[in-house]
Design goal:
Blueprint: H1 15-29, E1 32-33, E2 51-52, H2 59-65, H3 71-78, H4 82-102, H5 109-119
Antiparallel strand pairs: 1-2
Length: 143
């Protein structure tokens, strides 16, 4: 069976090419300092620069940035070669690290918990010990 109209061209020919695109994604996540027309940075009342366009790094965001249609497509691409696997493993770990840091942030803890438990291996809520509705009583006659 021959399927026409579909090419098997890889999105990234080399792991280095993909690595460069990944770095651009993480740079984009940082946002940019808001500036006045003269180029001076706009600052808040504490003197810190006002950043616009910053957004959290996510695996799905990375997949879309790299030109994949879904997060799963990115995960499938990871299995192509050891080099792609290594680069994408590190990139996903950077997303995981961001979510992990948000666990200590009052505003981001719920989203971080959800992301970590659903998107990364090894993160799960420990189930509480199930208690049966009937208490088991054992009588030991040692006398």
């Amino acid at each position: 069976m021959i399927i026409t109209g579909k090419t098997n061209k890889l999105k990234y020919q080399t792991a280095e090419e993909m690595s460069e695109a990944i770095e651009k994604y993480f740079k984009d996540c940082e946002g940019k300092a808001l500036t006045y027309e003269n180029g001076d940075a706009v600052t808040d009342k504490y003197g810190a620069p006002v950043i616009i366009g910053a957004h959290p790094p996510t695996v799905t965001g990375l997949a879309l940035w790299l030109g994949f249609k879904t997060r799963q497509s990115l995960l499938n691409y990871q299995a192509r070669t050891a080099a792609f696997n290594d680069i994408l493993t590190v990139a996903k770990s950077r997303c995981e690290e961001y979510a992990e840091r948000r666990l200590y942030d009052r505003d981001g803890v719920n989203g971080a918990k959800f992301s970590l438990t659903n998107n990364f291996k090894g993160w799960r809520e420990k189930p509480e010990e199930e208690q049966s509705s009937q208490s088991e009583v054992r009588i030991i006659d040692d006398i």
